[in-house]
Amino acid sequence: MNKIITMVRKELIDAARDKRSVMAGLYYAIGTPLMMCGMFMLLIGQMSSPEDLNIKIDNADNAPDLIKYLSSQGISHGDSQSTNDEGDKLDVKDIRLVISDDYAAQMAKGMSAEITLIADKSNEKLQNSIRRLERNLQTYSAEMGSLRLIARGIDPRVVQPIKINVEDQATPDSKGGVILGVATMTMIYAVFISGMNLAIDTSAGERERNSLSLLLSHPVSTRSIVLAKVFSVTVFAMLGLLLTLIMSKISYAFVPWQELGFTVNISTDFILLMMLIGLPIAMMAASLQLFVSFMAKTFKEAQSYLTLVLIVPMMLSMAASYNIAPDTLQWLPVSGQQQALIAFIKGREIPMLQLLLSSLTTLIIAAGLTFGMERSLKSEKIVFGL
What we know:
- There is one protein chain.
- By secondary structure, the protein is mostly helical.
- Helices cover 65% and strands 5% of the residues.
- It contains 15 helices and four strands.
- It starts with a helix and ends with a helix.
- Residues 28-334 form the ABC-2 type transporter transmembrane domain.
């Protein structure tokens, strides 16, 4: 055991000397929470105070009341020459609302008046604007329908046989859990990113520097060498996770969550639980990255392989964040642990059986990869990169 501790210390000292490996981990740990913070602030700003929507409206004179209603909702006519009060050119969306020529006559008769909305719904930049316009048109149509019924002496409620009352039992913390579920994904991914450079350097890098064969020639068992490398990469990954959590706790405090009616609180209990759950994931990540790096012949080849391999845990994490995973995925590594974290954030009971089984599976995978590395390092093909 003392030999393993000594070798772990040696690996960490070597890693600390390599400023690029340290900075690569720090960039993600510090930069990602700040970027997420900026993204959330931008998103909240757009959701709480939507910008004015300028579209092209044909035959606007035929429907003055409709135009007035849309204007009160921030939707108005604009064209390529339109400018705001400061003289700046308006951002006119490529959405066209065509009011029929007989709109006024049909409305006067109490008949259906035709309006045509022309837009490209496959354009992602226009989808929110299109939905906003459709929602306001439907609201206006419903209001006009109610007024027509009242004018005929009919209570508008007769066309609403069912009155739906929704009692939202979500707490502020559980509402925030939807947002923090996405943030949790970036935290778990920190485990994979923070130790990746060290994993490559201590495997493929050592082989390129011809120090791996020298290390294996020492009177230390191959198992001790492999375990030392796994533990050192795990330590690096856990440090990256801790730094990510601290930065998230600080930066998320500046996001105005209250404007959306919920709170996001990264408590000390959450940080401790995240560190506990993150430890098996960090060990699996270290084993996986070292195993793949040893299989690669060069440092650059290892980087390419790991970039592809890391897509798998990211997909599992995304499936858990957006709740699109089938039930079987909740028992797998990463997604199972992340769902337990999300349950904790939302104030629900942690699915212990799911968490324990997914963590056990994670450790079994880590042990299997470690055993595979031990076996592979007895091959000259792996040691010398032949």
